[in-house]
Amino acid sequence: MAVTIVNPENLVYARPKGFTDTPTHYCPGCTHGTAHRLVAEVLEEMNILDKTIGVAPVGCAVFAYNYINTDFVEAAHGRAPAMATGIKRVLPDRVVFSYQGDGDLASIGMAETVHAAARGENITIIFINNAIYGMTGGQMAPTTLPGMKTTSSPNGRDVETQGYPIRVSEMLATLDGAGYIVRRSLHDPKNIRLAKKAIRLAFETQVHGLGFSMVELLSTCNTGWGVTPLESLKWLEEHMIPAFPLGDYKIAPSVAAIKI
Amino acid sequence: MAREMWKGNEAIAEAAVRAGVEAYFGYPITPQNEVLEYLSHRMPELGRAFVQAESEPAAINMVYGAACTGARVMTSSSSPGISLMQEGLSYIAGTEVPMVLVNVMRGGPGLGNIAPSQGDYNQICKGGGHGDYHPIVLAPASIQEAVDLMPVAFELAHKYRNICTILIDGSIGQMMEPIQLPEMQPVVRKEYDWAVSGAKGRERHVLTSIYLDVPTEEKINLRILGRWREAQANEIRFKEYYLEDAETIIIGFGTAGRIALSAVRAARALGIKVGLFRPISVNPFPYKRVEELCKQAQSFLVVEMNTGQMLKDVQASVRNRVPVRFYGRLGGVMPFPDEFVHEIQEMIKNPGKTEDDPADLWYLRMMAR
Question: Chain A within 8 Å of B22 (Cβ-Cβ)?
């Protein structure tokens, strides 16, 4: 039923222009929708929707292009930073971002991620870290916590045989080409607001030509984790934040000087 | 324009520049390094994009991204590196975006060696990556022909929204020859109705190779096949030598075809009525022309620097109407013209039966050497 807003000041919530009118395919409770919305809002607020090209990953966000209302390409698994590089080098005045999960970015695509950052490639990555492979049914990811049960670590991740989780933001922050590397979380409204600010600054970093930018977003996968949406938010706060501390890992002085 | 001495790999790189290539992404591998090295200074001085990628998979996915903008883009590599690119090539084919690939083939399988080989014919012509797709493949036999085909490769890639491969081997990449380079063309970025560039003043464009709805994927496969059928109808290229009165016809592509031309001339000097048919488009393969030649030829000799990969395409045309003999050298060994002359003489002495398996008989001869 169409609703007419008589007084614009009463409008407190609307679909951003950066979003298409498409029903979500994400599981109820998943934070992908929140992350998508933040990206869409930032692109709209920066007035760059019509000069942005997104690169979708392989994983749950493979259909990110169904929702975020810009030109889009769909990459092979893990290769989004390389594909984004190709687009950005040919169209340097456009805004190019990839949106990738932990399996895509930190496992199969680790080389592409590290080298895009090392080159100081002027692209932005939105990195969804939910410690699991969601789309394929909940297997162990490079960010799965020690002892965490997944379909491929059914007794809990055994660090003796399956190794330790990778802290991507900390690692990329060591690279000179990185301009802006931060970790935020999507588990409550306050942190979602902080995440949006970070996404804004990441895109500003790119628009100002200040090098590689990435926002890591701690996210939930209640389906893969086998808990309710509410429990998943609590689990993120209690288990993921201690393993992946929130914070600013690299803010180049030139990025810190950006006035929004 | 003057004729100048150029090394094959560098000449190909310069020809690509003159054909308006806007972006190159590559990774070092012998014997194609000079393409990458040459473009590492030539592209930046023209304000065009050059990236030495961290790997071949990264290089081909950079090409994939750049190709989605509609720009003229290319990469080059050699056999093991081409294997690493197959994933990206399949995605590029599935997304229907144009690109040019140069494969400077070397001995294999595995790490093999860095000597000239034609062992990648099947991989390059028959797909290589997963799924149903058919890349256009041009196989020049000299540096001049390679540089002449560079602009053609870009035109075909964009006309058919497909991969166009220039298939050469290490000898063409590494040797020097006097050549005349094509004229410098201006860079022209066409506004394609499928390319991504930011949706300013138009509907947004989405380029993907995933179609979960299977009837849709079938339609996409048919669309890709439709363009391929057009290429099959319009893009057959070959060259014929001394065929007017030839009773025996040699068929070889690339370097093997070039060596065969020396062999034909030597055999002609001995009074043998032999000619050469050299496919240039090895995909689409000139099946119809080979079929026509069956009316004239008393026998065919197929020569390759592999175990008889193109031989299967020739046999598909000949269909046992005329005896076919095969001669191949492998693993980076270059055949001499004398070896082909000897094969011609042996074939005339004993043309064999049309139902003989030429690859089988060749193998037995090789093992008896």
Answer: yes
Same-fold call for B4-234 versus B239-368: yes
What ipTM was estimated for this complex? 0.95
**Lookup result for tokens 């969804």:** A128
Binding-site residues on chain A for chain B (CB distance < 8 A): 49-53, 55-56, 62, 65, 69-76, 79, 82-91, 94-95, 111-112, 114-115, 119
Residue A3 has pLDDT above 70, yes or no: no
Nearest chain A CA: its distance from B246 CA (Å): 51
The Cα of B65 is separated from the nearest Cα of chain A by a number of Å equal to 4
Q: What is the pLDDT of residue A84?
A: 98
Q: What single string gives the DSSP state of each residue in A194-248?
A: HHHHHHHHHHHHHHTT--EEEEEEE---HHHHTS-HHHHHHHIIIIIHHHS--EE
Owner of token pair 């005045």: A93
CATH of B239-368, one of 3.40.50.1110, 1.10.3720.10, 3.40.50.920, 3.40.30.10: 3.40.50.920
**Chain B residues closer than 8 Å to A76 by CB:** 61, 64, 87-88, 91
A69 to B204: CB separation less than 8 angstroms, yes or no: yes
Query: What is the domain extent for residue A237?
Result: 25-256
Residues of chain B below pLDDT 70 = 1
Q: What's residue A10's pLDDT?
A: 82
CB pair distance less than 8 Å for B53 and A115: yes
Tokens encoding A34: 């929140």
Closest to A89 (Cα-Cα) out of B159, B25, B242: B25
The verdict on a CB contact (< 8 Å) between B208 and A112 is no
Which of A62, A65, A119 lies nearest to residue B206, judging by beta carbons?
A: A65
First to last CA, chain B: 49
Predicted local confidence at residue B92, as pLDDT: 98
Note whether A134 and A224 are within 8 A (CB). yes
Q: What local confidence, expressed as pLDDT, does residue B118 receive?
A: 98
Say if residues A126 and A97 touch (Cβ distance below 8 Å): yes
Q: Which of B61, B208, B209 is nearest residue A79 as measured by Cβ atoms?
A: B61
Q: What pLDDT sits at residue A8?
A: 81
Question: Is residue A30, in this structure, part of any structural domain at all?
Answer: yes
Asked which of A1-15, A233-247, B110-124, B274-288 is least confident by mean pLDDT, the reply is A1-15
pLDDT of residue A2: 61
Per-residue pLDDT tens for A150-206?
A: 999 999 999 999 999 999 999 999 999 999 999 999 999 999 999 999 999 999 999
CA B314 to chain centre: 16
A88: closest chain B residue by CA: B66
pLDDT at A66 over 90: yes
Amino acid type, A58: V
A221 lies in some domain:
yes
Residue A6 belongs to some domain of the structure: no
pLDDT at site B189: 82
B209 to chain A, any CB pair closer than 8 A? The answer is yes
Domain spans in chain B, listed from the N-terminal domain onward: 4-234, 239-368
SS3 A55: strand
Contact B278, B315 (CB under 8 A): no
Domain B4-234 coded CATH 3.30.565.10: no
In a domain, A149, yes or no: yes
Going by pLDDT thresholds of 50, 70 and 90, the confidence category of residue A260 is confident
CA distance B226 to A115: 39
Q: What is the pLDDT of residue B304?
A: 98
For A83, name the nearest residue in chain B, comparing CA atoms only: B65
CATH number at residue A225: 3.40.50.970
What is the tally of structural domains in chain A?
1
